[in-house]
């Protein structure tokens, strides 16, 4: 009996992500995308407006999938801005990750529940925080282009900010093992090598009043530092943030509707510390 209790106790410890060195959020939170730890035990919380108080339960995902079928909750150390009440979240894609009739893409993109084309996320000075970690059991196929975090214009004509990896379409793949942050004209604002073992923490400050972008970065538990900018970039056009995976096809000029995607997909990107803060008076949580 004592051996069984000891085994059960050890199993519960292994199931809970370890808490690393924490950092406090210093600025007012506009949208909080950090996931409550309790939701890992009942991911159906993500599936309806009645229970999902964080993200839009309907968008953007495979037509026949629910978020509870898409998310995984890996046993990894918590990211820099996650507290004991928060858990890392893995967004996955499969053969069923086809949104509407976009048969070229495989995608699953989270939208903040209260984000809107003309809402508070599109005015003043705001900073988007997110941390990413790689899952060796669900690696990305870097011969493809991946759009993982972005801010899409209200008319869907462009993405003002793009956080990408893999072989960008039209490129030779020399940078495929890097994360790149681009503006809407695909001008590179910052890049860093993908770390296969530890968390990578990003903060993108969007100054809508000056059309400027400043990027902050750190690895592991280290405090973020300014690494690029402020750089001029058009941020007009409103829109919404998306956080997840959009895998583009190869072998086509019509990436939305055609091209090649492998079968039996099982790919994922782990996220933590997702939130949008108000950076008035140059406030940025580091």
**What proportion of the residues form beta strands (DSSP E)?**
35-45%
By helix and strand content, what is the structural category? mainly beta
What is the string of helix and strand elements? HEEHEEEEEEEEEEEEEE
Radius of gyration using CA atoms only: 19 Å
**Mean pLDDT, nearest integer?**
92
Unreliable runs:
1-15
Count of helical regions: 2
Share in helix? under 10%
Q: Report the sheet with the most strands, covering strand number, pairing sense and barrel closure.
A: 8 strands, antiparallel
Distance between the termini: 47 Å
**What form results from the Cα inertia axes?**
globular
Q: How many strand elements?
A: 16
Describe the 3D structure:
The chain has 2 helices and 16 strands. It is globular and about 50 Å long. It has helices at 2-15, 67-70; strands at residues 29-32, 35-36, 71-72, 86-87, 89-93, 106-110, 125-133, 145-152, 159-166, 178-183, 188-193, 200-207, 212-219, 225-232, 240-247, 267-278. The protein has 286 residues and is mainly β. The N and C termini lie far apart (47 Å). The protein is 6% helix and 35% strand. Strand 13 and strand 14 (225-232) form a beta hairpin. The strands form 3 sheets. Strands 1, 3, 5, 7, 12, 13, 14 and 16 form an 8-stranded antiparallel sheet that branches. Strands 6-15-8-9-10-11 form a 6-stranded antiparallel sheet, with no helix packed on it.
List keywords for this structure.
286 residues, mainly beta, 8-stranded antiparallel beta sheet, 6-stranded antiparallel beta sheet, 2 helices, 16 strands, disordered N terminus, GH131_N
């Amino acid at each position: 009996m004592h051996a069984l209790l000891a085994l059960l106790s050890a199993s519960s410890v292994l199931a809970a992500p370890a808490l690393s060195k924490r950092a406090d959020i210093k600025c007012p939170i506009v949208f909080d995308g950090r996931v409550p730890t309790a939701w890992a035990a009942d991911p159906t919380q993500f599936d309806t407006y009645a229970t999902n108080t964080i993200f839009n339960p309907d968008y953007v995902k495979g037509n026949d999938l629910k978020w509870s079928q898409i998310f995984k909750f890996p046993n990894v150390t918590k990211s820099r801005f996650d507290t004991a009440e928060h858990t890392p979240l893995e967004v996955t894609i499969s053969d069923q990750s086809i949104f509407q009739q976009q048969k070229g893409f495989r995608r699953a993109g989270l939208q903040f529940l209260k984000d809107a084309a003309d809402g508070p996320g599109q005015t003043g000075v705001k900073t988007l925080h997110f941390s990413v970690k790689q899952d060796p059991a669900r690696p990305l196929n870097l011969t493809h282009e991946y759009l993982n975090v972005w801010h899409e214009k209200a008319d869907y004509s462009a993405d003002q900010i793009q956080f990408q990896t893999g072989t960008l379409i039209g490129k030779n793949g020399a940078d495929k093992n890097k994360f790149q942050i681009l503006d809407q004209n695909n001008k590179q604002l910052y890049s860093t090598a993908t770390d296969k073992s530890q968390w990578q923490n990003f903060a993108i400050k969007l100054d809508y009043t000056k059309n400027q972008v400043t990027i902050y970065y750190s690895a592991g538990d280290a405090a973020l530092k300014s690494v690029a900018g402020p750089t001029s970039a058009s941020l007009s056009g409103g829109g919404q943030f998306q956080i997840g995976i959009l895998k583009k096809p190869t072998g086509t000029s019509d990436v939305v509707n055609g091209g090649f995607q492998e079968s039996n997909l099982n790919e994922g990107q782990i996220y933590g510390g997702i939130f949008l803060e108000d950076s008035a008076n140059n406030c940025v949580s580091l």
